[in-house]
Amino acid sequence: MGLDRPLILVSLLLTGFGLLAVYSAGQTDVPTVAAGLWVRQLVWAGIGVVLAIAVFRISPRLLEWSAPAVYGLSILILVITLVVGRGAGTAASSKSWIVIGGHAVGQPSELAKVAVALMLARYLSTRRDAPMSLRELMVPCLIAGVPFLLVLKQPDLGSSLVFVGILFAMLFWASVRLPLLFLLASPGVSLLLAFSPRIWGLYMVGLFVLLAIWRLYIYESIAVYLLNSVMGAIALPVWRRLAPYQQNRLLTFLNPEVDPQKAGYHAIQSKVAIGSGGWLGNGFLQGPQKRLAFLPAQHTDFIFSVVGEELGFLGVLLALILFLVLFLALLRIARRATESFSSLLVFGLLGLLFTHVFENVGMTVNLLPITGIPLPFFSYGGSFLLITALIIGLALRVAWDSRLSGYIEM
Amino acid sequence: MVIAAFGLLAAAFFRTQILQHERFRLRAAYNRLRPVPRAAARGTIFDRTGQVIAETVPGFSVALLAANEDSLRRALVELGRLVPLDSGLADVVVERFRLARYQPALVVSSASFEQVSRLEEHRVELPGLVIQSEPRRVYPAGKAVAHLVGYVGEVTQSDIDEERYPGSRPGTLVGRAGLEEEYDDSLRGVPGIRYIEVDARGRLVREEGAAPPLPPIPGRPLVTTIDLPLQRYIDSIWPAGVRGAMVAMTPAGEIRAFYSTPAYDPNMFIGGISVEQWQALNRDPALPLLDRALQVRYPPASPFKLAIASMALRRGIVDFGSHMPEPCRGGIQFGNRYFRCWKQGGHGSLDLTSAIAQSCDVYFYQLGLRLGLSAILQDGVLMGFRDKSGLDLGSEVNPIFPSSTAYYDRVYGPRNWSSAVTLNLAIGQGENTQTLINMMRFYQALADGGTSTAPYLVRPGESRARDLGLTPAQLAGIRRALVAVVERGTAASIRQADLTVGGKTGTAQNPHGADHGWFIGFAPAEDPQIVIGGIMEFAKHGTVVAPYVVRALRRYVLGPENEGKEAPIRVVAPEDSAPRSAGTPAVPDTVLPDTVPPDSVP
Hints:
The complex is a heterodimer.
Chain A: H1 5-26, H2 37-56, H3 60-84, E1 98-100, E2 103-106, H4 108-125, H5 138-152, H6 157-173, H7 178-193, H8 197-214, H9 218-241, H10 244-254, H11 265-275, H12 288-291, H13 303-336, H14 340-364, H15 382-401
Antiparallel strand pairs in A: 1-2
Helix pairs in contact in A: 1-2, 1-13, 2-15, 3-4, 3-5, 4-5, 4-6, 4-14, 5-6, 6-14, 7-9, 8-9, 11-13, 13-14, 13-15, 14-15
Chain B: H1 2-19, H2 21-32, E1 33-38, E2 45-46, E3 52-64, H3 69-82, H4 89-99, E4 105-111, H5 113-121, E5 129-138, H6 146-149, E6 152-154, H7 157-161, E7 173-175, H8 178-182, H9 184-188, E8 192-198, E9 204-206, E10 222-223, H10 228-237, E11 244-249, E12 255-261, H11 275-283, H12 305-314, E13 331-334, E14 337-340, H13 352-358, H14 361-371, H15 373-382, H16 406-412, H17 420-426, H18 436-447, E15 451-452, E16 466-467, H19 472-487, E17 502-508, E18 516-523, E19 530-536, H20 542-558
Helix pairs in contact in B: 3-4, 10-20, 12-14, 13-19, 14-17
């Protein structure tokens, strides 16, 4: 018995749940583009099952071998996208789509996420020991950093953050010490805190103390401290260079009521939809916010708001529990994997999915700023659904391969 | 860490969906539901027998729901193709939209059935169209009751800001004049609300059943003291093109008819009067918006002689048999001026009764001098000639009557006036102008035991009771004298065989044209049931007015069956035309409200 049945079951449940949500999103009093999309999503789901089965038949060895090629290819496509990319769908203003013959074929950033996970898994698994110093983290950072910057340039802040999620998940799984991870993240933290000089000052003092306690390489400590200082100094100039829509999203995240008609509209309407759901919701297909088109992007980025509005807190809880079960299943596979490449890869993909779920769901309830990234299994869209299927297929294969290694007994 | 993150998410959802549920539920309802006010039917106004003066019938209103001003203007253009719209209407509608963005903006408040059915056919082209039944005001008697009932109009923003009509909202119809204004609070009722459902762009999705509606509470009916047939009768006999007013009241102060002309048709205001119509009404030199019974002051002229007589009787200066030292020879020399009687040939020596009957100016010049200016002013104030009558219509203006001689000091300078002013006052000219309704109240007291309470249409207003201070015998004498006016005096032309009428003619000096005519009379003289007073501008003589008043008296006392049986009217010239006074400046005749500062002498 080598098939991970819980993973298959929870994936199918999530896919079914997602299809229902896409169907509901199309049922509005006012015709929207989402009206008949559930049929196409159903087709995508079918293709996804086939893809998952196909991926299941591919050996992780082949993946490991092809990782540099896949990675190189995806970087190439990202560069090409920057030149010829088009906006489409909910990301109409950014160059994130490859268009061939007038058809939007897909978002290369989705493929790049998987490629980064592959490449990091290969790099980290070939090392005997976990990286012990920041210098040793240079290569992984570069692997994730290049696509991060390319996607950020599109500009697609939400997707680029996924690379950060994958990187940290995999470094953590590769047993990099937590202080090191913290130091790695510290320039970013410094960047965010720099908007409040007083907090930033406290942070810098705290950082100094931590560096003294942890006793890392002296040069690295100095470098980290300097980098934090530089980040603090350039925060405001960088802020000014952000596109206005990015500034607006961050600002309205802090207070959506600043501009309820424009920038804060999405955040407010999503929260209103969810909040009006209550315990049991307005009933499947019955959400007025969705029906009357108050809810924007209700079939893609804000599909979880439809769940919240129509199925209430219990429906939301059910969806979150399904995701939690999915992640625990993936975690178990990663833990029981017989060799480190597979283990790292599965955990990296877990990080990928988790970043998506957390970012998307967090944004609908205004816990996080609005970033247009899809919710796995739910959001309408072919390329990401296929990526999700690919991840599930890959995880199933890893579980299959480790069936003889005590995985089954646990 | 994953579990912690999920716990955070779940907590966030719990907070939003459970703890803040009520807030967001309301917010969602606010998003999609638009309140549409449902006008309350205004209360019906009845006359005393239950005939309808103003009523509310079903009608339709057309409104547009729009997301912004541009789409509203486009929809108006679209709408204009289906129903004719006034040129300036678009701006008015946009203004309404600005006042209440989330409510349908009223376009046509009283649409015809044909318009409504045509709009219904083209509903698809007008996504924001809201048609609902809207009560419509109708005044069956039209112009005949205009000044009595007033009219209704949409409440303005300044009305709302100043809370002039508590509880009204944009679009509410409120009373603008007459009874509609005075009793607006009880007539208006409370508007209800129904909810329509709209989508994110403000397009109408569902009209009914989106949320439970709040039904309007109709206004309370108003029963007045008016006798509508009499009111209509007065309107029907009134000579065409003549300006003036006629009021009928019982001795107890109940108004039976309240007529002023020229008037407007109150039905014209229904559904919003057009700018052109409104300007035409305001620019009309005949001032049809002016209520001539309440808002215009005329010199009281000869009818005021009864006030002088009452003062003299009350102070014991004369009795009905008293003669004045100088007989009437067509005038009297006073100081360096000669004061004429209206009758050039003179009346000879008259007693008080005959002087009243003949309206002899010379007699009253002397009587006024005997009384003295101070006494005339003091008693005049006491008899209410400085006060409003207290009729329950808010637009009444104050009469002008000096409170003391200080008035003359102030106007002419302390030494620049003489007792000549007394002579003018004694014949109802000079610094004394009265509204028809206030003179009516004086004659009401004469007809009813020497006291009067405020006249009223629904409820007596606040006004002190007035007592002329006359004994019953004196009152009887005065009434006999007033009957003598009609039997053998200045109004002998209107003598009726089947009805004893008492009354007094008057001719008010008018420096701007022909004199105004007065007649105030009551009938039957033995036991007065009704007092009717009329004034006609530019009528030249009181005797011109008298026949109309007499016909109204007959109609009220004898009923419609005796109509047309009145004695033929003989004009016995010359009438008691008032003499031209030379010294004192004439008081403006048609005094517009708020244009003449009221006499402010303490």
